[in-house]
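Contributing new records

If you add data, match the layout below exactly. Sequence lines come first and carry their own label; structure lines follow with theirs. Keep one chain per record. Anything else will be rejected by the validation script.
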Amino acid sequence: GEDETASEATFELHPQGENVLLVLTHRRLAGPDEMVNVAGGWHTHVAILGDVLSGRNPRPFWSTHAKAEAEYRI
């Protein structure tokens, strides 16, 4: 049983010298509104991950998400 209509997210990690490149692909989204919402969410989650990995205080989720979502709507 997998739901054939469910979206699918994949994560790939590639060495880049001393760093690692994260490639995140999210497929089978229902339409433009869901794409914008999901893109804003991933954008925010990855930005917070970057903050934590860099030793910075993580930015606030919802205000960051709202800003990213607004940019994706353009």
